[in-house]
Amino acid sequence: MRIVTDSVADLPSELVARLGISVVPLIVRFGTEEYRDGIDLSAEQFYAKLRSSPHFPATATPSPQDFADVYDRLAGETGEILAIILSAAFSATYQAAEKGRELMRRTCRVEVLDSRLATMAEGFVVMRAAEAARDGASLEEAREAARRAIPRANILCCFDTLEYLKRGGRIGAAQAFLGSVLKVHPLITLRDGLVQPAGRTRSRAKAVDRLVEHVAGFARIDELAVENTACPDEAEALRERLGALHPKERIYRSQMTPVIGAHTGPGLLLVAALGDRKP
After folding, report:
1. pLDDT attached to residue 255
2. Cβ–Cβ under 8 Å, residues 107 and 75
3. Architecture in CATH of 2-151
């Protein structure tokens, strides 16, 4: 059995290779220029273009044929494929993954699961399914491992600006933050697959404190990640602080993929956790 996901899961390349996960990239566009997320355009190249390009970045889902091609390739190795995709309420990538099944040339059982998540919260769900598959699980068993992980995975992040979410149409209920005349640092989460407000602070330092407090609110942490868009020093400092709550060497560090950066802009700090909150 094999596991497929999309590039928004933000999984480190070494983990993808070790667990045999297949990643289908989303698309980033600057005007007429088109790039496969994380393949044709690195995070560093993306932020350089963000500063220099006259075009605001746009994103697009993979095509159904992109998924069909991956399914067909894997069908030569297995009779079962589980695709775990970012929130269907957030992107049409899930629909593309579903339609890809109809375009397959080979015969193989393929199921598609909506993670209701994004970033490494989605990635942690994918990891659990891939670990089960590695250990010989059936599709049903791997799918159940993923489903158990979904309600235990969450994110909290702080922004310098919500302008990118607003322009990209992904701002959801956090639209309420835009009416403030004060300089605030909004905190955002994902709930039921949608962007939701999670509070605001008057300073960046207070926002980072809230990220630490969020992690401290877990009774049990199985996986933890710190991610950023173009603020690696802040992310590393946050990881150092979180080392008091979870072994530092087990905290994943990730520069978010260009597709995520196109919707958040620079200056995003995010913690993703898989675990159980305190009562």
Report:
1. 83
2. yes
3. 3-Layer(aba) Sandwich (3.40)
